[in-house]
Amino acid sequence: MYHEEQQKEAGFHYQLKADLLKLFVYLFRNIPKKKGIHTSHEKVQSKDILEKLDQVFRYVEQNYTTKITLEEVANSIGYSQFYFTKFFKRNTGKTFITFLNDYRIDKAKWLLINSTDTVSEIISQIGIKSDKTFYRLFKQSMGMSPLKYREKMVVKT
Length: 157
Fold this sequence. Notes:
transcription, mainly alpha, HTH araC/xylS-type domain-containing protein, 73% helix, HTH_AraC-typ_CS, Arc Repressor Mutant, subunit A, 157 residues, 0% strand, Homeodomain-like_sf, HTH_AraC
């Protein structure tokens, strides 16, 4: 990770995120949260949580280009909107809307690097309906405009 940060080669942000996620998974799997042995009930509950989150992530992946409401996502996993909101925040550390916006911005970053589509075309492909909202979220996430990001990340040949 240190090397990636120092070299800042094209796509280094993605590599850093991938490395951090690998570290998170390693810690999650290998460092017990409580002393003692987990009961089978705790294991089943954890498995259920992971399965529900996986369903949510798959739903987002399949539908991020369209308008997604909390009610639709909650219904897709059999939860009320109220319970889903608390469930998602408790198990991911962020709100569903923040997660969805981050996912869409990540898709936009990938398209900026790997396509020649205009920013307007990319906005229409990622499910954010307002250009103003997109630019605000992008700048909030990356600290620069989409075009500056493209210039910085696309390797000149």
